[in-house]
Amino acid sequence: MPTTIIDYGIGNLRSIEKALDHVGAAPVRTDAPQQIVEAERLVLPGVGAFGACIGEIRRRGLEAPVREAAGAGTPLLGVCVGMQLLFETGEEHGAHNGLGLLEGRVAHFHDTDSSENGAAGDLQSLKVPHMGWNTAEATRESPLLGERGAAPYFYFVHSYHACPTYTGDVLATTTYGPRAFPAVVQRNNVFGVQFHPEKSQTAGLRLLQNFAAL
Questions:
Q1: Which of 3, 65, 90, 104 could form a disulfide with 25 if both were Cys (CB 3.0 to 4.6 A apart)?
Q2: Residue 179 or residue 23, greater confidence
Q3: Which domains does the chain have, with CATH numbers?
C-alpha cells in the first residue's frame, strides 16, 4: 500500500521519498487535502524552525486534513521537526501552536524547566545542536521499533526536543549531556521520531519498513 508524504514545501522530501521507496513503501508526495484525508498512511517530514513549518502547513490548508486523518486512525509518522509539530506548542523563536495530536511542548536543550535532572550550568554548557549518531533506548515494545533489545544508533540534528505531558507517549529515549529526551513517541496510530531515519542507514530503513507494514 502507498505511503503518502505530506508535501508542504519544507523538509527533506527527496531523501525520505528515496528511503521509503528503498523499503518498498510506494511513496507518494502530495499537498492535496483530500489525498491526505484518504491516505493509507502518512509521513510528516520537517527541517528548520517549528514556527515556519506549522505556518506553511496552515497556509496551505493542510492542518485540518492531517488532524482528520489521524483522528480516523490513519498511521502517521512525524520525522524530526515533523515529530515536534505533533505537540501542542513549540517554543522556537516564540510560542507557536502545533497540531496538538500529543499533549506537551517542544523546548530548547538549554531550557532548565524541561528537564528533571541536570544542573542549570550543565545544560547551559551543552553544545547545540545535538548533531550526530546516538542510541535510542526503547521504553516499551511497539510495531514501529520491534522487540526491545540492543539500542540502535540513529542520526540526530536538532536544538529542541519534545517534553510530553504523559510519559506513556514516550516509546524510546536518547541521552544527551545530563538529560534523556524522547527520541520516539507514540499514541495509538500517531508516531514521531526526533532523528532522521532516512539518514540512519540500516536501523532507519528498518524503522521505515516497520511503519510501512502497519
A1: 3
A2: 23
A3: 3-212 (3.40.50.880)
